[in-house]
Amino acid sequence: MTTKRLLDRETIDQFIQSSLSPIIALLRETVDYGVDLLDKCGQRGGSLSDLIIIGHFFKHAVTMFDATEILLSRGAVFAAGVSARSMLEAYICLEWLLKTDTESRARHFYVWHLRQKREWARRLIPGTDENQRFQKQLSTLTKMQDPAKRATLEAEARRQDADLTNILTNVTNEPINDQFEHLKKRHLDVHWYVPTGAKSIRDITAKLSLETDYEFFSQFSDITHAGAFEKHVKFDGKGVFFFPVRSPEGIDALVNVTVNLAFRLYRLIIKSYFPSDLQSFNETYVTQWRSRFLSIPKVVVKHKGKI
Description:
Elements: H1 9-19, H2 21-44, H3 48-73, H4 77-99, H5 102-122, H6 129-133, H7 135-138, H8 147-168, H9 174-183, H10 201-207, H11 211-217, H12 219-224, E1 233-235, E2 240-242, H13 251-273, H14 278-293
Antiparallel strand pairs: 1-2
Helix pairs in contact: 2-3, 2-13, 3-4, 3-5, 3-13, 4-5, 4-13, 5-8, 13-14
């Protein structure tokens, strides 16, 4: 049985239902809009770059937005920051892809992705450098102790390696594949965007004037990497206070930034793929969302009790 001072599901659910249901309804509507837009894009078809932009990065952003809504609807504001941060990173990548040289940048991501898959396949192939570096990890796998299972895995890895190498060395992909090979640092590939002119995600934000967004969402990186100490523990001079596992505090701020990000995300995709729909989207924002979006109540929780 849980200690309700640390996790009181019933009270939080009741509070969300009675006081914050309009916020959750707004979130779900905007998530649903994104899912419908994703489906519309999928029906459109397109090139490899469209698959990377829509099928990967846009879908990832919508998926993370949906995850944020699920967590916020249960009062898990702290945990929701992780998916919100991932949503922003997908948006940054989309901006970078669509800014210029879209086909080339998307192809770089594709080649980088195939190289990552081939790296994993080669870890199971005796005699490869990848296999030598992965020996310690392989020795812990039960399947590798069974000769028959090991042989099956090695055969599948060889097949994947051959297939992936054929794709990576075709006339379209080979120059980019050679780029990554040349830019390797020790045995590691650089990130997919490095050959396209960016040193890091932070560098992309500078080039796209998204530094403010990146700095605000960086607080959620601390959560991802278990570094947000002050969000868990508080000293008051008399004792130690553990913050609850779930709390709706700050839900207004997180909804504000994620919904705003979603609107920008949708405009970016509509402008790129359905420019004639942009006016309709703007009208939907004004008539259905704006007033609700601008009237999100601030939530402050007064913490009591100490352990």
